[in-house]
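User: quick one, sequence for these tokens?
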């Protein structure tokens, strides 16, 4: 049995095991996804099937226990409040908007520096606990926290007049960023484009998240299916990164827009599946690599933003098959294919199968209206 086949086989057993430990399905599925992501990154690929299964269940159990420990953590001071206090600033209220300079200063830290500050000030851990988590002595943890705090304060002191535009983090792989950046900038956003294996985890200072389209297909293993002959090149590292970013953004109610494969990942994150190839699934009457119209669903954000039947530009051969749990369809193509999704209960969490950055036919164009709505949500 191949490594991929073992991961697919263990999807159900892992979820059931995690549900028994943590007590709710949503958390269990998040932890299962993280287990599979770790398996792809550093699992025992060449080991026998029993060894791989044991590794998966041990990893899942450890993640579940970590989750239970986090639930028992004591109350803490929010990071921006703790950092502001260190900088000699007054913080009006816990839910007051952050000083943009604070966010920019945090964004200039390394991932490890932000980690130690988050553990110390956001999670409220003692220096001894920080050391235990990082496998350091308490003295070493103290020095790292002090150094990270010093770097933060230097970055804050160097910050000039704040740029009040909302920061939109754009996640891409090998795609050309120019069209996305021009589209978002024209709507009044400051765009921070990130690429690389761990870019999805780097959302410090972000006011919104945009997942751009992908030149590669989403690996079917991410939604529990075997790879068919129609799947083209995949980039598992990139899509695992994007799933992590989506999960983090939704957990903090950060405005999110998934474009093309980004919409597909939003569906996968919620337990949905994909058509691995539209013509092979019988969707060959409409060219999904060209302009066409879509019908928006009454009462959705898409209807309010775009009207009943906007013209859009698509370029894809995969799409949503089974809708993920808790998602709502917002737009549908003439052939019945789902072309838009939203996550109810969030201020702005949309996925569109089409490309709004290519739909800017004047100031009232579909793409411009969507960018304006995203930026408005990011400044709320």
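Assistant:
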């Amino acid at each position: 049995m191949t490594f991929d086949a073992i991961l697919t086989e263990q999807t159900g057993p892992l979820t059931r095991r995690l549900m028994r430990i943590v007590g709710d399905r949503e958390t269990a599925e998040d932890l299962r996804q993280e287990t599979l992501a770790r398996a792809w990154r550093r699992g025992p690929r060449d080991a026998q099937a029993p060894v791989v299964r044991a590794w998966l269940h041990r990893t899942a159990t450890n993640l579940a226990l970590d989750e239970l420990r986090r639930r028992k953590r004591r109350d803490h001071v929010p990071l921006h409040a703790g950092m502001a206090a260190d900088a000699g600033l007054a913080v009006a209220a816990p839910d007051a908007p952050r000083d943009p300079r604070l966010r920019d200063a945090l964004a200039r830290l390394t991932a490890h520096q932000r980690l130690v500050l988050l553990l110390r000030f956001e999670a409220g851990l003692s220096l001894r606990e920080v050391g235990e988590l990082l496998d350091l002595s308490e003295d070493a943890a103290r020095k790292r926290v002090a150094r990270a705090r010093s770097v933060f304060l230097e970055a804050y002191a160097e910050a000039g007049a704040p740029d009040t535009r909302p920061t939109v983090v754009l996640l891409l792989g090998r795609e050309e960023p120019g069209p996305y950046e021009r589209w978002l900038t024209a709507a009044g956003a400051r765009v921070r484009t990130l690429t690389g294996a761990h870019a999805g985890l780097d959302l410090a200072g972000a006011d919104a998240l945009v997942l751009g389209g992908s030149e590669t297909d989403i690996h079917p293993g991410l939604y529990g299916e075997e790879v068919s002959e129609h799947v083209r090149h995949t980039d598992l590292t990139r899509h695992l990164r994007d799933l992590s970013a989506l999960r983090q953004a939704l957990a903090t109610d950060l405005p999110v827009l998934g474009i093309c494969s980004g919409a597909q990942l939003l569906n996968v994150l919620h337990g949905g599946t994909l058509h691995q190839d539209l013509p092979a699934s019988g969707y060959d009457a409409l060219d999904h690599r060209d302009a066409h119209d879509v019908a928006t669903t009454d009462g959705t954000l898409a209807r309010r933003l775009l009207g009943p039947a906007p013209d859009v530009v698509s370029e894809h051969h995969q799409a949503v098959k089974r809708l993920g749990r808790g998602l709502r369809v917002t737009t549908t193509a003439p052939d019945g294919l789902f072309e838009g999704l939203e996550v109810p209960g969030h201020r702005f969490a949309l996925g569109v199968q089409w490309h709004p950055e290519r739909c800017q036919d004047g100031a009232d164009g579909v793409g411009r209206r969507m960018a304006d709505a995203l930026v408005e949500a990011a400044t709320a």
